[in-house]
TrEMBL record:
Zn(2+) binds at residues 216, 278-279. It holds the Pfam family S-methyl_trans. This is S-methylmethionine:homocysteine methyltransferase. Keywords: Metal-binding, Methyltransferase, Transferase, Zinc. The keyword Transmembrane helix does not apply. GO terms for molecular function: S-adenosylmethionine-homocysteine S-methyltransferase activity; zinc ion binding. GO terms for biological process: methionine biosynthetic process; methylation; S-methylmethionine cycle. Gene3D superfamilies: Homocysteine-binding-like domain. InterPro entries: BHMT-like, HCY_dom, HCY_dom_sf, Hcy_S-methyltransferase. The gene is ybgG. It comes from Sphaerisporangium melleum. The keyword Transferase applies.
Length: 294
């Protein structure tokens, strides 16, 4: 499978990896989140990828979102072990893709805020500047660039400064393809308040960038956010529509896969080329997207 090359092409992404891992019985209450299972139970990650392919996804997004070198080192692992674990995240997705009979592997590049584990991936409230962010990301970036994944999924980026750092890393690795997807607080702005249009413009015309868009935002924000992206393929994979109650540390509301699928049909009609789900979406959500947009 290749990236969309015609107006009618569409790629269906997977849904929330951590959400499905929890449904498979995994306890992810840990600062490593789903990456914890690279240490403890890699087979269940492979199974989660297989379940999303069976539901109709064209893409397996790896369990490397929170699998940074500093996170593993903080857990007592040597840098060489960290590199092997990050590589393992891609190997598991490739194995699942091959067993499923085809598809793409997207190596997840989570934001610096995910490492902080304090919600900064939604606010962009960082303690590092652009140069430091480049160097923080570089070891994992270089590992994933050589991993065999077809694309790096630079996702949940909440900060204009971090977007500039990613643009620099892309320039340093000219043979790498990537998508860049931003974490947005409303229908117009990133988590740090930067207009999405300004961030999307950083990547306009870049032949390495297969799509620019949004994830980890409410479905109700998607069509407005899409209006701020032009001249490049658009990727959208929002949350389920439930709300996070930080005080009680639980999700509230009801997510209906049928409604999510109907919304996906509207995103496709509005021009989205890559469509899937993020937090709290499941194989059922992806199955409905496949049903609605084929």
């Amino acid at each position: 499978m290749s990236f969309p090359s015609a107006e009618n092409d569409v790629v269906i992404l997977d849904g929330g990896l951590a959400t499905h891992l929890e449904a498979l019985g995994c306890d992810l209450r840990d600062e490593l989140w789903s990456a914890r299972l690279l240490l403890e139970n890699p087979a269940v990650i492979r199974q989660a990828h297989l379940d999303y392919f069976a539901a109709g996804a064209d893409v397996a997004t790896t369990a490397s979102y929170q699998a940074s070198f500093p996170a593993f080192v903080r857990r007592g692992r040597a840098p060489a072990e960290a590199r092997a674990l990050i590589q393992l995240s891609v190997e598991l997705a490739i194995e699942a893709r091959d067993e499923a009979g085809g598809g793409l592997v997207a190596a997840s590049v989570g934001p610096y805020g995910a490492y902080l584990a304090n919600g900064a991936e939604y606010t962009g409230d960082y303690d590092l500047g652009e140069d430091a962010l480049v160097e923080w990301h570089r070891p994992r970036w270089e590992t994933l660039a050589e991993s065999g994944a077809e694309v790096l999924a630079c996702e949940t980026i909440p900060s204009f400064t971090e977007a500039r750092a990613i643009a620099r890393l892309l320039a340093d690795t000219p043979n790498v393809n990537a998508w860049v997807s931003f974490s947005c607080r409303d229908g117009d702005h990133l988590g740090d308040g930067t207009p999405l249009a300004d961030c999307a413009a950083l990547f306009a015309g870049n032949p390495q960038v297969v799509a620019v868009g949004v994830n980890c935002t409410a479905p109700s924000n998607v069509k407005s956010l899409m209006g701020h992206i032009s001249g490049m393929p658009i990727i959208v994979y929002p949350n389920s529509g439930e709300d996070w109650d930080a005080g009680n540390r639980r999700w509230t509301g009801i997510s209906d896969p049928v409604e999510f699928g109907a919304a996906a049909r509207e995103w496709r009609a509005a021009g989205a080329t890559f469509i899937g789900g993020c937090c709290r979406t499941t194989p059922d959500h992806i199955r409905r997207i496949r049903h609605e947009i084929g």
